[in-house]
Amino acid sequence: MKNKLIVKRNWLWLVFVSLTLQAYSWNKPTHMAIGAIAYRDLQQKSPKTLARVLNLLRQHPDVKTRWAPMMADTTLTPAEKDRYLFMLAARWPDDIRGQNNPNDHATWHFINYIYNPSLGIARTDSSLATGENIVQAFVLNQQILQSNAPDSEKAIALCWLFHLAGDVHMPLHTAALISPQFPEGDRGGNLFRIKVSMSNPTLNLHSFWDGMLLGKDQFRAADQLAIELLKNHPNRKRIRGRKPAIQAWSTQSFDLARSLAYRQGALVPGTGAEGAVLPADYVATVKPVAEQQVAWAGHRLAGTLRADMTRH
């Protein structure tokens, strides 16, 4: 028993020191689609909230330098430019990564719920400490939004809420896989090497999930994805409970990481530089779930904005 406890302590510590290097969650186009879904949801259900959010986003420090040139497209209507603002806000925390921006917070993008199928461990009661995680960051930015902070700070908080609502619905940003092959963790699937088919190049599992739905970093493409997801995945009732909604969303994503992304530990990673070919039914099985998660991220973000903007 003592030896087993020592082993568990050792791998817990290894994960603590090594899983701070998580990569991006949904890619930028997918985050843009989440912003577009939230925009349309608010447009339909709470135009007043939509107007307030737009007014705050226009106070963002990067609105004139980073965003204005992108929205200067003369083919866009005024309504499309407003929607584009939501889309750019949703991707902003990824746009500033690695640029020494004081608003860049690497650990905010994920949470390390432990999954060790070889030891029969799937733990959501606590998270390994790596700094503030996605659940803590979401609550923090909600508090900023409801405070007396300057509008420029609230605009930054809004961008983080937009982005984290997306990140938390990406299953591989909630799970720390520990296995004999990855005793220090697979970094949210970044070390888990796979191929979609034998003829495809090797990539990692995280990258596969990241760009599964869209690769074009353009307004029209992301907006069209939002339209399709709104049609195929309507809104879902809110998860109710005493804990913050973000925590419920994160544990739901963790369940999907275990059951679908890693297939209860049965998904086999490649060795060395060569990726293992995914099961024949993998893409067809997980893609509808990814679409569902992205749609829910947009709807749940809109619901959060309606509640938070009403309280302040």
UniProtKB/TrEMBL annotation:
<keyword id="KW-0255">Endonuclease</keyword>
<keyword id="KW-0540">Nuclease</keyword>
<dbReference type="InterPro" id="IPR003154">
    <property type="entry name" value="S1/P1nuclease"/>
</dbReference>
<dbReference type="GO" id="GO:0003676">
    <property type="term" value="F:nucleic acid binding"/>
</dbReference>
<keyword id="KW-0479">Metal-binding</keyword>
<dbReference type="InterPro" id="IPR008947">
    <property type="entry name" value="PLipase_C/P1_nuclease_dom_sf"/>
</dbReference>
<keyword id="KW-0325">Glycoprotein</keyword>
<dbReference type="GO" id="GO:0046872">
    <property type="term" value="F:metal ion binding"/>
</dbReference>
<keyword id="KW-0378">Hydrolase</keyword>
<keyword id="KW-1015">Disulfide bond</keyword>
<dbReference type="GO" id="GO:0004519">
    <property type="term" value="F:endonuclease activity"/>
</dbReference>
<dbReference type="GO" id="GO:0006308">
    <property type="term" value="P:DNA catabolic process"/>
</dbReference>
<dbReference type="Pfam" id="PF02265">
    <property type="entry name" value="S1-P1_nuclease"/>
</dbReference>
<protein>
    <recommendedName>
        <fullName>S1/P1 Nuclease</fullName>
    </recommendedName>
</protein>
<dbReference type="GO" id="GO:0016788">
    <property type="term" value="F:hydrolase activity, acting on ester bonds"/>
</dbReference>
